[in-house]
Amino acid sequence: MKNSVKIIYTLLSALLLFSCREKEAIFADPYAGGKVPLGVKFEDAAPSPAQGFPGTNVSFQVTGLLPYKDKLIFTFNGEKASVTSLDDKEIKLKVPEQASSGVVAIQIGDQVFYGPEFRVRGKLEFDATYKALIGSNGSIIDQLELSSSRKIITGSFTDFEAKGIVKPINRIVLTSRDGEVDRSFQSGKAANGTIASIVELNNGKFIIGGSFGAFDTHSGGNSAIFSMTQLNSNGSLDTTEINTFLKKDTVPTFNGGTDQPVDKLLIYNNRVTAIGSFRYYIKKLYNIPTYDQQRDSLVLDSIEMRQLARFYPNGALDTSFNYDLQARKSYPGPNGFILDALMQNDGKIIIVGKFTKYNNTEVNNIARINPDGSLDPSFNTGSGTDAVISSIKYNSTTQKFLLSGTFSKVNGVPCYNIAMLNANGTLDASFSPRQVTDGFVTFAKQLSNGLIVAAGSFKRYDNVTRGGFMILNPNGSLAKDYNATGSLNNGDYSSGYINNIQESITSSNETAITVYGSFSKFDGTVVGNIMRLTLKK
Q1: What is the DSSP letter of 246?
Q2: Deepest of 199, 347, 402, 534, by most Cβ within 10 A of its Cβ?
Q3: Judgement on whether residues 357 and 261 belong to the same structural domain of the protein
Q4: DSSP string covering 327-357, please?
């Protein structure tokens, strides 16, 4: 076959060569009629100054601009600047009020000339006291703050701060308040798959959930794990000794789980509610022999529990939650997908996502569930939203909920991608989101000072360039001086996202936010899926 191809290729080459010799063809210039070069060029020199606040006067070394002084448009990351002076070697401008860090550009007619990056300063800055500079090599999904101010970080990563070379760091790590790895955590090889969520029990132990089937050295057989398990306070797997049909064995104490991944765990009254794409609750039965009574046979008992299930700390199913005693399975639950959820202080759960019914009652993408799993009709969201809700967050200070997603209406009222709800579920009309361009808001959370952190795939908000990250005022407008930072994930809006943020107070009494998710850059700086930012006063 290879020889045949070679022969055909040789014949075609010979024919082409003969054709060229036979007649020298003359073709038209394919570039004829194109735009004549304008002779504009950014010189290889940094702007002066190299960074500055909005309103700062800055100069760039650019040649060839003088003939076009009345036609050019100069932008800082898409925001138009006013020219203060111009000659044939230099242009001076004032940094626009709404400018953010990014590439500068000159547009003359339909031709664009790109220059260097310019960092715009503002009141949002990296926290210099945060020690996690490398971060993780995979997504960070959850972060649990302990009473000691230390934090347990979970996700899909297999390294954190490049500390996992000698001793593995698989999907779970303990850090100090400032992001330094704490080696007192004894998780061993840890999980063999993503840990999506972690909660703490009253006794200081932890329940983790995700998409894993083993933890440390425990895997398969009696030690098989089904998306959930319990850890001791030091991070080791909590185990117990059981009697099988023929022998004793050491197995995970938490005997329960699900047939598909768990996305989120919520805790109330020391019982854990799992939310995910699962259909069945699973429990292991250890004392069953094979049919010939000669060997142990691991038997799995399963109960249909769609997307929601509540567990006791030992893994037993709590059948007082959304369970039909006669049918011996869960009630239908949502008829679509749950994308986020939160637990209220009274034990009620709010779920959001893409669904139109809960337990056969019409709801649209949002519902509040009573502690027994029944629908709470007092949560007055009206007709819900007209499209997907990807995130819901609650602020205990303002007592407001923030929704984000692809929706454009909430209870029939125009509301683009972000909505604020009162404690009873009604729409808060004081928050008026502006138009989002080229993408969607997928995350939004209000801080205790009223400011709102929002992120997503969008490129502009209220016709101002924002690269997938912004700080809003409580009324929905862009917060002055807090939106000078460049893009999240360096402009690759489709691949970076934020899972959550945690608020804290710095030693100088300023608000700080630890942001985590899946992103590799922010404001032109390399970060590993986690960073801490300070909101200056």
Answers
A1: S
A2: 402
A3: no
A4: TTEE---BSSEEEEEEE-TTS-EEEEEE-SE
* 305 and 331 Cβ atoms separated by less than 8 Å: no
pLDDT tens-digit profile of 290-305?
A: 665 666 667 789 999 9
200 & 269 share domain? yes
Helix H, strand E, coil C: the string for 292-325 is: CCCCECCEEEEEECCCEEEECCCCCECCCCCEEC
Q: Is the peptide bond before 67 cis (omega within 30 degrees of 0)?
A: no
User: Are both 344 and 264 inside the same structural domain?
Assistant: no
Q: Which two tokens stand for residue 481?
A: 């001086």
The region, left, alpha or beta by phi > 0 then psi within -120 to 50, assigned to residue 457 is alpha
Residue 375 lies in a domain: yes
Those residues whose C-beta lies under 8 Å from the C-beta of residue 365, and which sit 6 or more positions away, are 352, 353, 354, 355, 356, 384, 385, 387, 388, 389, 405, 407
Please give the Cα distance from 200 to 531 (Å, whole number).
24
Residues 307, 340, single domain; the answer is no
Give the separation between CA 134 and CA 161, rounded to whole angstroms. Answer: 5
Sign (positive or negative) of CA dihedral 252, 258, 263, 269: negative
pLDDT above 50: residue 115: yes
Residues 172 and 235 sit within 8 Å (Cβ to Cβ): yes
The DSSP-derived string for 372-390 is TS-B-TTS--TT-BSS-EE
Cα 245–chain centre separation: 46
Q: Are residues 321 and 374 in the same domain?
A: no
CB distance 450 to 435 below 8 Å: no
Q: How far apart are CA 363 and CA 385, in angstroms?
A: 9
DSSP conformation class of 238 = P
d(CA 322, CA 183): 41
Total domains in the fold of the chain? 3
Whether pLDDT at 286 is above 90: no
Q: What does the pLDDT look like over 225-268, one tens digit per residue?
A: 999 999 999 999 999 987 876 678 788 999 999 999 999 999 99
Domain that holds residue 83: 41-121
- Do 344 and 470 lie in one domain? The reply is yes
Mean pLDDT (the chain, rounded): 90
Sequence length of the chain is 537
